[in-house]
Protein 1
Amino acid sequence: GAVVSQHPSWVICKSGTSVKIECRSLDFQATTMFWYRQFPKQSLMLMATSNEGSKATYEQGVEKDKFLINHASLTLSTLTVTSAHPEDSSFYICSARESTGGYNSPLHFGNGTRLTVT
Amino acid sequence: QKEVEQNSGPLSVPEGAIASLNCTYSDRGSQSFFWYRQYSGKSPELIMFIYSNGDKEDGRFTAQLNKASQYVSLLIRDSQPSDSATYLCAVNDSNYQLIWGAGTKLIIKP
């Protein structure tokens, strides 16, 4: 149980284009999903918290107009990297917490999306 | 600034031995504690979680929590080469914010 599906697994795009990443909770409902970014050999960095039916909460230093997050249903959140540049190349990972489990329940992670901007 | 600290390693353990990974946290009101395993180039995978003081066992893994001393540990018995990975400690603080440690790299030597 508690499977999170993230798509695509990897994407290569040209500088200036936009890329959409989907995150789905397959067998549970997730009121809250989290988007992380990880550069090689570095720690996980929380980018934003995605709340179903409301605006996402972005961490300090993360541009909300560049990283658009939509959480339209209890099982789907999307991250769109707009006007991507080479410095946006990274490993993007979504995670979700079961709605029924409360704030102390664990996060379940998708398999991540490796974005390369050329 | 609330912190979760882990030794970055690498921690090298012979195959078959017990690997002991440690984590300390600064917020005394922290609520829940998690261990994740992350292989290189992959996303984190939940190994164990613990909420109460004491030990919690799951197969070869044991999580230990000591709230008075503000540390949580993960023991891996009968270590296998496939256990070689980075182990991330995460703590839900008193505001239910998940704080991550930087991870300990574990190497199991055959």
Protein 2
Amino acid sequence: EAGVAQSPRYKIIEKRQSVAFWCNPISGHATLYWYQQILGQGPKLLIQFQNNGVVDDSQLPKDRFSAERLKGVDSTLKIQPAKLEDSAVYLCASSFGTTGGAFFGQGTRLTVV
Amino acid sequence: GNSVTQMEGPVTLSEEAFLTINCTYTATGYPSLFWYVQYPGEGLQLLLKATKADDKGSNKGFEATYRKETTSFHLEKGSVQVSDSAVYFCGSGSRLTFGEGTQLTVNP
């Protein structure tokens, strides 16, 4: 079974530029999560989708971050404009339900210079 | 909302030592509880889980028991190996809230 796919693996951009990350969840998984993991910290939930609807985006900085999950499958997370403090690993995860745990992709490491 | 508190790290042990990593949670109701492991340069992998009180999750020699009386889900292993060196995260609930992680280093 294919796992959660994310791209790109690494990205370096200058502050004030924009960037987008892509996630393809495991087939059949209705729930999709995006997390931000700053070095040395635990992952912080940015947004959770159930199919193509948003369940929780309370910690998403909506002035600069946006995410969508068209057709309830793939998802993209965008940052515009980026700040230095956005440097982190962005993790995507998916699950069939919400009680059994989620499967994570390898993440995208973003460096903002 | 849910929150998770893990013991402060890092933890350094010798091979074959006993491991305990503490985790406590706060939540309304009884959320599912998880332990994830993250090896260097990789994403998080689900290690074990428990979905209701008194459940014991186990995998690869690791165990954790869902204790509603103490709101805890401590991770244990009787004999650690060098290959267990990684960061361990406790997680809770349908929003999958994580603790700050505990770095484990096992020396030969």
